[in-house]
Amino acid sequence: MTATLDPTTEVPTMEVGRERRRKEDAHLITGRTRWTDNIVLNGMVHLALLRSPYAHARITSISVAGALDAPGVLGAWSGADFPEQGGLPCAWPITPDMKSPVRLPVAVDAVKFAGEVVAVVAARTKAEAVDALEAIEVDYEPLEVVLDMEAALAEGSVLVHPELGTNQNAVWAFDSAGAGTGGDVVAALAAAESDPDQVVVERVFRQQRLIPAFMEPRSTVVDPTSEQITMWSATQIPHVLRVLIALSQGIPEHKLRVIAPDVGGGFGGKLQTTPEEIITLMVARKMNKPVKYTETRSESLMSAHHGRDQIQRLRISARRDGTITGFDVNLLADMGAYLGTVGPGVPILGAFMFNAIYKIPAYRFTCTNVFTNKTLTDAYRGAGRPEATFGVERIMDELAVELGMEPMELRKKNWITHEEFPFTTIAGLTYDSGNYEAATAQAMEMFDYDGLRAEQKRRRDSGDPVQLGIGISTFTEMCGLAPSRVLGSLSYAAGGWESASIRMLPTGGVEVITGATAHGQGHETAWSQIVADQLGVPFESVEVIHGDTQSSPRGMDTYGSRSLVVGGVAVVKAAQKVVAKAKIIAAHLMEASEDDIEFAAGRFTVKGTDTSMGIGEIAWAAFAAHNLPDGVEANLDSEATFDPDNFSYPHGTHLCAMEVDTETGKVTIRSYVCVDDIGVVVNPLIADGQMHGGLAQGIAQALYEEAQYSEDGQLTSGTFVDYLLPSAMDLPNFTLGRTVTPATTNPLGAKGVGEAGTIASTPAVVNAVIDAIRHLGVKDVEMPCSPQRVWRAIQDARSGASTPAPVPVAAGPSAGVLSTGVPTGGAA
Amino acid sequence: MTALSVKVDGVKYSDDVEPRMLLVQYLREKLGKVGTVIGCDTSNCGACTVHLDGTSVKSCAVLAVQADGGEVRTIEGLANGSELHPVQKAFHECHALQCGYCTPGMIMQSVSLLSENPNPTEHEIREGLEGNLCRCTGYQNIVAAVQSAAAEMSGKSLATAGAAPADETGSLR
Ligand code: FES
Ligand code: FES
Questions:
Q1: Distance (Å, rounded) from C-alpha A384 to C-alpha A377?
Q2: A91 CA to centre of ligand 1 in angstroms
Q3: Which end of chain B is least crowded, N or C, by CB within 10 Å?
Q4: For residues A697 and A703, what is the distance between their CA atoms, to the nearest angstrom?
């Protein structure tokens, strides 16, 4: 057996595919948990942070003297007291001329958004630290704020960072004519405009600002009291964090150990080097004591990064028969006041997904990133792809209406058919496999599509006050954010490979070390299933180690649905290396030629004989090392890294039946069916769970959640009272189906699932809301589609007002603002 | 400082606490019972749910001194030795948790729900869990777990409850 990654290699499927209950659960259901905030160290000091109440202000004076006298206080500092503090790194400079303001962990002289840290108190207890914040005196000179992207780009706007001379962070553009992947969209749209046999549909959609809202608030503990500094953090990215902290804080990397113990959710929200982590580290080093900082929920909502926040102006053209001829995408993306670790790159991930599952002959994507006096935005579940999928799936419905076509028929007319795979899209990606027909047929059947359409007609005809809408979303996404070369071509600072190693223990256990740190996705269980199959050992005898840069030294961590399709495949590779080494030893011990050894179900057998040895016996022999072949090292261990050549492309069809009470605006999801193709499934139970959670977040964007600011830049949805995470009462049961078209780009055939539900559900739900009331004259309802907004849209339509009030975007594709940037080519 | 005497998970404690100390702080900071966690500062998320004298409370909304003379049960005292409570078992069986942060509160609330209404409908379960937020699961499997536990506790088997996928039971390590 070799360690090649031939996709046709048969992977034995005994454990893979099985609904294994999770190994992770035991301590979580009994409360024996290791959250960062649970850590208590001798002499530990607690921090509280003073945050700016202003969204934009000069700090004219600040004094922490009062706090120093408060009970229990051991230290208090303002920004100026940390002359050593370095700026927080942004790892994704998307263009060479990207404007990158310095973001200090503790602000000095000025604040740029409400919630920015201005002072720090250390005390014996958290309560004492919080009490002492009151004694800090700060004089602010409030400055005019700019919160709206349009206004921020306008001539003479207040500048968030005057030293940059502009609020424009960067312009990133892709054009199929320039890239040689397709035609000229300007010509295509112009031709359509003057051709009676074609139509052009233009829409502006708003992607409201969302908050990832992981349930565990962020927390950091730093122990600087030994040679090597140890940091525990509720982070998704312990490995990347270590590198970024080492670089930005001048700590030799080998003198820093980062541990992500149990981590309570992330969704991209914990994919950052945060000011809070750096502050905890700085204070710990200053005091030479262990220090803990845990944020409150209000602090978290205000200052942990937000997601989405885009205005999308889309223009699509098609022939009367439904064939799309061109698609022009123009985005404004709100970066907030500073750049997050990967923030600038988030919207451009959408560049590759706006063409979705469709064959589009001419395409352009232009994105302008803008600074405003708000919390920064960065990755949030799906990062760029939900926004893109929403835009294209909404405008497909609008185009269908314009053409008088059934919306599913329009999709079928344009999608890539099963025979056409692999298919290189106009954005330059190669979709390796997919079968949109199969997933759609299954979904329509499970949903009773035709039956519901008939019911919809009946209700319309009878003028039922409760109308029925059917929302469609067909989608694909690029998963397994890895190919390091591609990330490099997109100017991302690091690679995307993942590592794994396997240690077979002499007594039969197997330790698997993975760099793909988990925060609830069940890696320990899934990786155990993979290893059990690969090595022919019991599921129970596998232990998965992760989340500590000491025990799992190499990794790129978890985001972008990369765990299984990159990290899981690294585990497969490591296992194959173990088997290869074991085979050499087995041949030697059984005095046979290596070519005559077969491996199956954990046993090495000399072909045609009943002479055999179990892999455990080989592990012992390798440990004892009494009789190993020349040149073979002791122990049955391996290390592997996987860096795929291509992304993987899960896809699916989501259908939502929505009841809309036209008298109250109340929307109720009657049924939600989705059929997803995520390739080969390692653990269906876990995969379904990921879908459920993703759907909940996508539906929440459609119906409930929005980070709102007052005119002076205060987050007015700053608690769970105002920021409406859906509860059990707000969500339906989902009906999940599955088709399996294996990925051909990795030996597992897996495609990834973590973001699918979120990406696909938002447009399905909004399309359903609008479908229910379109006959009343409603063309759009802004997200979240609250009862009030829905009711208002119906009223406006009935009274003949245009619905909704168009989102003001001065900057169209040909408008000055957006064309002043320097477009850079950027096909993957 | 105020004197406080309380039984927590079967053990009696006597302490002097600040009158303003919350029950959740007392449990976590004084007693080291960190199984109960904090998810919000507005009593909205339910992560901190425990039982006080047999009723579920959000321990961030109760002062420690209010528990004086009372009995508190937390997630750490729910299992009977190594024998898990049926609700704990059902959460495991039905994959009703992902990151697990909301889980202690969810389980405690579910136990309380079932003690008040041993045979709840799906709607009653959703209503009963409305004050407990979960960001990972979309609630579907949590609801299934409560249904499954209800069936188990009323003597029906997990498989016939129709909630737990009936395939592989697996084991806790
Ligand atoms: S921490 Fe008590 S309800 Fe959120
Ligand atoms: S399992 Fe993560 S919040 Fe519920």
A1: 11
A2: 35
A3: N
A4: 10
Ligand 1 nearest atom to the CA of residue B45, by list position? 4
Residues A260/A519, Cβ–Cβ less than 8 Å: yes
Q: Are strands A229-233 and A256-259 parallel, antiparallel or unpaired?
A: parallel
**Any idea which ligand is nearest the CA of A216?**
2
Say what the pLDDT of residue A558 is. 83
- Mean pLDDT calculated for residue range A380-409: 97
Distance A301 CA to ligand 1 centre (A): 15
Tokens, residue B98: 């992902």
Residue A253: count of CB within 10 angstroms of its CB: 13
B116 touches chain A (CB under 8 A): no
CA A60 centroid distance within chain: 39
Tens digit of pLDDT for each residue in A282-310?
Answer: 999 999 999 999 999 999 999 999 999 99
Helix (H, G, I), strand (E, B) or coil at A606: strand
Asked if B105 is an interface residue toward chain A (Cβ–Cβ < 8 A), one would say no
* Residue A146 burial (CB count, 10 A): 24
Phi, psi of B156 (to 5 degrees): -80, 160
Given a contact cutoff of 8 angstroms between Cβ atoms, the answer to whether B98 and B136 are in contact is yes
Residues with CB under 6 A from ligand 1: B 38-40, 43-48, 58, 60
**Cα A802 from chain centroid (whole Å):** 36
Q: What residue of A is the nearest CA neighbor of B166?
A: A19
Atom 1, ligand 1: which residue's CA is nearest?
A: B38
Nearest CA to ligand 2 atom 3: B134
Closest residue to B168, CB basis, from A18, A217, A734? A18
Q: pLDDT tens-digit profile of A552-582?
A: 889 888 887 888 999 999 999 999 999 999 9
Residue A658 neighbours by CB distance under 10 Å: 28
Cα of B19 vs centre of ligand 1, distance in Å, is: 19
Going by their DSSP bridges, the two strands A542-545 and A510-514 should be labelled as: parallel
Provide the percentage of residues in chain A whose pLDDT is more than 70: 95
Quickly count helices (H) and strands (E) in chain A. Answer: 22, 28
Q: A438: burial class by Cβ within 10 Å (0-12, 13-18, 19+)?
A: middle
Query: Cα(A343)–Cα(A493) distance, rounded to whole angstroms?
Result: 13
Listed as own residue / partner, the contacts of A242-246 with beta carbons closer than 8 Å and 24 or more positions apart are A242/A549, A243/A494, A244/A89, A244/A91, A244/A273, A244/A341, A245/A273, A245/A277, A245/A278, A245/A281
The token duo for A35 is 């959250």
- What is the model's pLDDT at position A560? 78
Transcribe A773-804 into DSSP letters. Answer: HGGGT----PSS--HHHHHHHHHHHHTT--SS
Question: How high is the pLDDT of residue A15?
Answer: 94
Give the span between the Cα atoms of A684 and A729, in whole angstroms.
Answer: 25
The share of chain B scoring above pLDDT 90, in percent, equals 86
Q: For residue A261, what are its two tokens? A: 């113990």
Determine the Cα–Cα distance for residues A690 and A371; give it in Å rounded to an integer.
33
Nearest to A709 by CA among A380, A375, A383: A375
CB contact under 8 A, A540 and B173: yes
The answer to whether B170 and A21 are in contact (CB under 8 A) is: yes
Average pLDDT value for chain A = 93
From the centroid of its chain, how far is CA A667? 28
Question: How many Å lie between the alpha carbon of B148 and the closest alpha carbon of chain A?
Answer: 15
Q: Which of residues 3-62 of A touch B (CB under 8 A)?
A: 18-26, 28-33, 35, 37-38, 40
Q: Are A273 and A89 in contact (CB under 8 A)?
A: yes
Residue B69 beta carbon below 6 angstroms from any ligand 2 atom? no
CB contact under 8 A, A729 and B169: no
Cβ(A158)–Cβ(A146) below 8 Å: yes
